[in-house]
Specification:
By secondary structure, this protein is mainly alpha-helical. It is about 55% helix and about 5% strand. It has 18 helices and 4 strands. It has a 4-stranded antiparallel sheet, with no helix packed on it.
Amino acid sequence: MPESAEQLAVPDPSPTSPAPAAPGAGVPRWVNPYRHLPKVRWAVQLAYVAFLVLVCWQFVRFVGQALGDGPITAARPPAVEAFLPIAALLGLKRFLLTGIWDGVHPAGLTLLAAAIVTAFVARKAFCSWVCPVGTLSRALEWLGRKTLWRRRWPAVPRWLDLPLSTLKVVLFGAFAWSVLSMPLPAVEQFLKLPYNAAADAKMLFFFASPSGTALGVIGFLVLLSLVVKHAWCRWLCPYGGLLGLVGLLSPLSVRRDAGRCNDCRACTRACPAEIQVHARLRVLSTDCTGCLSCVAACTTEHALGLTRRGPKAFPAWVLPGLALGVMLGFWAVARATGFWESILSAEAFRFAYRIMGL
């Protein structure tokens, strides 16, 4: 029998009979508690850049007065020694062999030791939270995204990225071999030379009046960084190679819960080193800088987190907190114990600058 009109009619909803709820209605939408972490990292990075600008301004004043004939009233900022990696490596070798801390560039050795310890406790967080070159790389990534890649950065093929990522380790190996092959008397003699004392001013003049070759290399690296995410940090930075190897010993790492992951791949897209985070249970790559961009981009609760070598999770803020705490701690101890300021007087630096023909 045909159905009646009453059977075919759809009942009108009434005020006393609400419509059935949609699936998932009433369940609060998960909000990533670490979504603001990239902005905090920007603030920390820019604060360090502002500090370095102040350091450079003070150092320019000091060098200008040291090269003149009048009195030197400007103080030499010890933090400028962060730009003297070779002197720091040589100082580290002598300290490990003799227990003597470098007195000419003590701050440079302090900062190198702090960066190494930071990598041990917090992976390569020094690169992503402190290093000014890392900040510049991030700024170029932002500029490239706004100008060249308005939608999504093209990924570098893995067959190309993997061998290029080993270049920074090779470069550091070359630096390390040149230092390790020097006998201790040669190291001690070099650290006492006027050339070593004047290395800070020579570095200043290199940046103030770069050669055509230097400008060409810097321009190429800038253009490359607009095309490839963090090209210098991923492929070429020797100290990144060192910190990446030390970071493998760190107990902290980003862990992915495969059962909770929805495979949206937001973590991989956010990674500045293009690590395939969505396909790993733990991010143990030497390219991981501890920036936590992947954790901040995660779209599923508890899918990504910071852990030790076990299931227990830690707040993601622990990693940058450890990194910054180590850096500030080394500075505070070095300054309190007299291992921050150079033993050379302002007049001794003036003498070294003039001997080197500056």
